Amino acid sequence: MEYVILAIVLAVLLVGGVIWLGLVRPRRNLPRGRTTYGPGTEPEATGQAPTATKPLPVTEAPSAEAPPEAKPEAKPALDIERPPPSAGRLVRLRARLARSQTGVGAALLSLLSRDRLDDDTWDEIEEVLITADVGVAPARVMVDELRTKVRVLGTRTPDDVKNLLRDELIAQLNPDQDRSLATEPHGGNPAVILMVGVNGTGKTTTCGKLARNLIGDGHTVLLGAADTFRAAAADQLQTWGERVGAETVRSDREGADPASVAFEAVTEGIEKKVDAVLIDTAGRLHTKTGLMDELGKVKRVIEKKTTVDEVLLVLDATTGQNGMRQARVFAEVVNITGIVLTKLDGTAKGGIVISVQRELGVPVKLVGLGEGPDDLAPFDPAAFVDAILG
Ligand code: GDP
């Protein structure tokens, strides 16, 4: 009898062992899980500028709900940042501006401080201004003005020279122009801001930074990714928006109709009662007619719902005369209400502020001074000139 019991116990232990080895052990040996993402996707992008990360399956604005292919546990919740207000930012970013521009300021100050200001010296002053992209005609005007003032002044102390140049540069920047952005809702509708410009100038980045500025200043914002010709642009915009809690209306289809995305964005902005809708557009300068048709259509469909309050032209300050040519084409195609000059941190050609304002008769309203999220500043002529003169 004992043998029978012993045999049964051994049999049970044997079967139990086999089951444990076969089922439990292999599970423990599974490699440790990596967070998985949908096809073609990557974990959160790092670095300064947001980049494309994951295709979204739907046309609609991403909502607070996770898209189907990204399981909640697969993507850590994004912390919504609270951006700082934008007032006085140009003064805070002064060092960055000064780094790229002081060469120009120092050269002008040193030339104007010479004991004798002969024709050659005035030619040199004009040359420095032209090299800094002030433009030939404005440079000549400035030299004439400075010449007259120096004559009236007689002897010059270094402070006199600095004040003289400061006043002249500020005057050339039209300090009295209204540089405020129309970002307040009106008649129950959000303010609509259209961002236009050639691809690569920093349009999408500026849209994202501007959303941050507005949110930092207490507004609610919705983004429209109407640059449908570059898939990465919508991802990029969405990432900027997610960081500050702004929704993005986008299309999942590359090459989708930009006007319909813009229309959707404005419709949703009205429904959600946001203060401002920012719309990024594609800037393919293939032909002027193509551009005109595209931007015209975007504007027309928005106007079925509400007014377009700002059309901001984004220009890359490092592109000099090429940028000026782009500015002219866009100005012929749409009614530009303000200019955003990007990449002023990377060039000593700050004089483009003077030439582009003069050429288009429209004020520079914002300047980009870096790739960081808070590197977009409202333009302030006096702070700009002070940074140039050091
Ligand atoms: P888009 O094609 O016009 O939408 O251009 P993007 O927004 O994709 O920007 C093109 C590149 O310019 C990106 O690498 C941006 O980080 C960079 N960029 C944009 N604005 C600035 C700026 O003010 N300063 C610097 N240094 N880089 C900028």
Provide the structure class.
Answer: alpha/beta
Order of helices and strands: HHHHHHEHEHEHEHEHEHEEH
Number of DSSP strand runs? 8
Proportion in helices: 40-55%
Strand order of the largest sheet: 3-2-4-1-5-6-7-8
Mean pLDDT across the residues is 81
The helix count comes to 13
Reported for the largest beta sheet, the result is: 8 strands, mixed
Distance between the termini: 104 Å
Bound molecules: guanosine-5'-diphosphate
Strand content bin: 5-15%
**Uncertain parts:** 15-74
Radius of gyration over C-alpha positions, nearest whole angstrom: 29 Å
* Shape estimate: elongated
Notable features of this structure?
single chain, alpha/beta, eight-stranded mixed beta sheet, 8 strands, binds guanosine-5'-diphosphate
Q: In words, what does this structure look like?
A:
The protein is built from 13 helices and 8 strands. With 390 residues, the chain is of the alpha/beta class. It has an 8-stranded mixed beta sheet, sandwiched between helices. The longest helix is centred in the first third of the chain and has 27 residues. The site of guanosine-5'-diphosphate (GDP) has 19 residues, from helix 7.
